[in-house]
Amino acid sequence: MTNGDKATWRTFFVHARATLTEADRSADAAALTTHMVTAALEARNRTGCATVAAYVATQTEPGSLDALYALHEADMRVVLPVTAPGNTLDWAEYQGPQRLVRGAYGLLEPAGPRLGVEVLESCCVIFVPALGVGFSGERLGRGAGYYDRALAGAGVAAQRVAIVRDEEFVPELPYAEHDVMMDAVITPGRGYVSLPIKSTN
């Protein structure tokens, strides 16, 4: 697919994810774990910052609980989103899989104290879920705007790194003025890619 509005692209990506086999999901998740830990450690070595923001992947999203555990075991402080009133995100520290509980919409969230969106200012990397990412850094989310609102207040030092499948990193996606652009993307096959890049098409 080479064009279309946001709704069309969302339908396209969601359908493609639904057709993946469990073997494909597991292979992608393992590769993403390696790339995410590498990116976090490189950022820590470069900046001295040891805090990253991540997310608990749903069944169809790229990523896994293994990635959170691996980041935690690498001595990174990991904060995760918590759904808050007013279609906003709060954040709490990841303290292991046993401390994750079902929150709003049935999503897994940390059970610890809420830290406020300002905790993102202390992060060196913010791993962001996405349905798709364009070569210029445009991110396609699910449309509710949770992450755009949260990321708009994040510290400028934090790298905004979207996590998608290889096929979800495409030359161009529609975006709006309020959309927050990504600084980089991680895919299972390509690893960490700084953005923007020039299209080869």
Please describe what this structure looks like.
The protein is of the alpha/beta class. It has one domain: Rossmann fold (3-Layer(aba) Sandwich). Helices cover 27% and strands 24% of the residues. The protein is built from 4 helices and 12 strands. It has helices spanning 6-18, 22-47, 65-73, 146-151, and strands at 51-53, 77-84, 88-93, 100-102, 108-110, 125-129, 132-134, 139-140, 159-163, 169-170, 184-187, 191-194. A 7-stranded mixed beta sheet has the order 3-2-1-6-9-11-12. A 3-stranded mixed beta sheet has the order 8-7-10. Helix 3 links the parallel strand 1 and strand 2 (77-84). The longest helix has 26 residues, at 22-47. The two termini are 13 Å apart. Belongs to the 5-formyltetrahydrofolate cyclo-ligase family. GO terms for molecular function: 5-formyltetrahydrofolate cyclo-ligase activity; ATP binding; metal ion binding. It holds the Pfam family 5-FTHF_cyc-lig.
CATH T-level fold name = Rossmann fold
CATH architecture: 3-Layer(aba) Sandwich
Beta-strand residue fraction: 15-25%
Rg measurement, Å: 16 Å
Provide mean pLDDT, rounded.
Answer: 91
User: How many structural units, i.e. domains?
Assistant: 1
Q: Percent helix among the residues?
A: 25-40%
Shape: globular
The sequence of SSEs as H and E is: HHEHEEEEEEEHEEEE
User: How many distinct beta strands?
Assistant: 12
Beginning-to-end CA distance, first to last residue:
13 Å
Largest sheet, spatial ordering of strands: 3-2-1-6-9-11-12
Which CATH C-level class is it? Alpha Beta
The low-pLDDT segments are none
Structural class: alpha/beta
Full CATH superfamily name: NagB/RpiA/CoA transferase-like
Distinct helical segment count: 4
Largest sheet: 7 strands, mixed
